Amino acid sequence: MKLLSTAYSGSIHFSNRIFMAPLTRSRTDNPELAPTKFHVEYYRQRASAGLIISEGTNVSPIATGYVDVPGLWSKAQVEGWQKVTEAVHEEGGRIFTQLWHVGRISHPDFHGGELPLAPSAINPNRPIRTKRSGRTQTVTPKAMSLDDIQTTINDFKRAGANAMEAGFDGVEIHSSNGYLFHQFFSASSNVRDDHYGGSVENRARLLFEVIDALSEVMPVERIGARLNPMMHDAGGIEVNENTAPTFDYIIQRLNDYDLAYLHLTRPYKNLDMPGFIDDVIGYYRERYKGFLLANGYYQPEEAERELQSGRADAIVFGRPFISNPDLPDRIKNGWPLAEPDPKTFYTAGVEGYTDYPNYSE
Ligand SMILES: Cc1cc2nc3c(=O)[nH]c(=O)nc-3n(C[C@H](O)[C@H](O)[C@H](O)COP(=O)(O)O)c2cc1C
């Protein structure tokens, strides 16, 4: 089985091609927003993945927009993550952290009343949950000044340095799913008239500045990027005729870097609309020269076919890893997969977190 075969990206060795997707689980219920012993247990249980990509991890307080998500800006957080990476390495696994800035998908409750930051002052009009207000709505964010942008680049660089100190094998830039970078890419959320808005080059600039800044604190082969080009209508990001040219440019430029990988998520359904690319994986496989990760609604059979046909180098499984900590073993032996319970995706405590058992006959 190709899924079970080993792989290299640069000098990073993966023991199989069944990767674990970044999955927010909102279990960091402590004032430091530092990983706990339950994170250690959760990731240890899943260490047989060829690569674990950690849950989205905020690079700074202003990058936050979801409750009880861990960070990577403080000493307590680095120490918490150290225990996680040690556990994964003890089991022979590999783990990257996903560096996250939500941009405008946030609320003043997270920031002591200050406005969230975004490329432009455009409210995504999304429901959002905070501890103070419960279920509420996003607000019109503050358009980032050039100083705010520079601070953000520095925050990513510091988080990258902290990731190395915490023992991660690398980092994934969360440049997808309607968050900060995606907000810069999309002309519907970025109407800036400086050199971060307007042309495709300008809208993509922040991503490359962050890659360059991270390259100062880690080898570029330890940096991955995630894109979800055909994500539509989530948080005001829309697909139109400009979308494919924007991502064509980004992916062509990513070819200039020897990144650890490009992580692509495909759309969950075909939207019959102008500019929409149905087969995102096939389309960008032809354009990206490096190690390509494919994600989105994969079951083992189709995942194997993707690898056999060379359309991807590894498959990233999200929900299957929530409920099947031993997913590679189950795939190897043809054992049935357990279904995850969405009700406990984002709840506190161990239920639905560390209590999914390995398969037993
Ligand atoms: C509970 C949950 C949390 C998620 N958290 C993140 C996250 O922190 N970062 C991210 O990039 N994607 C996140 N995603 C998206 C997943 O990484 C993945 O793209 C999605 O689940 C589709 O893959 P799957 O069909 O294999 O589950 C999340 C998805 C789920 C279900």
Structure characteristics:
TIM Barrel, 10 helices, 361 residues, two-stranded antiparallel ribbon, alpha/beta, binds flavin mononucleotide, eight-stranded parallel β-barrel
Structural commentary:
By secondary structure, the chain is α/β, with parallel strands linked by helices. It has one domain: TIM Barrel (Alpha-Beta Barrel). It contains ten helices and 14 strands. The strands form four sheets. The protein has an eight-stranded parallel barrel, surrounded by four helices. Helix 6 links the parallel strand 11 and strand 12. The mean pLDDT is 97. Flavin mononucleotide binds next to strand 4 and helix 9.
Strand-helix topology:
Layout: E1 7-9, E2 12-14, E3 18-20, H1 37-45, E4 51-58, H2 75-90, E5 95-100, E6 117-118, E7 127-130, E8 134-137, E9 142-143, H3 146-165, E10 170-174, H4 180-185, H5 200-215, E11 223-227, H6 243-254, E12 261-265, H7 280-285, E13 292-295, H8 300-308, E14 314-317, H9 319-323, H10 327-333
Parallel strand pairs: 3-4, 3-14, 4-5, 5-10, 6-9, 10-11, 11-12, 12-13, 13-14
Antiparallel strand pairs: 1-2, 7-8
The chain binds flavin mononucleotide.
What small ligands are held by the chains? flavin mononucleotide
Rg, rounded, reads: 19 Å
Number of domain modules: 1
> Strands across the major sheet, in which order?
3-4-5-10-11-12-13-14
Secondary-structure arrangement, i.e. CATH architecture = Alpha-Beta Barrel
CATH fold topology: TIM Barrel
Looking at the chains present, what oligomeric state does this protein adopt?
single chain
CATH superfamily: Aldolase class I
Q: What is the CATH class name?
A: Alpha Beta
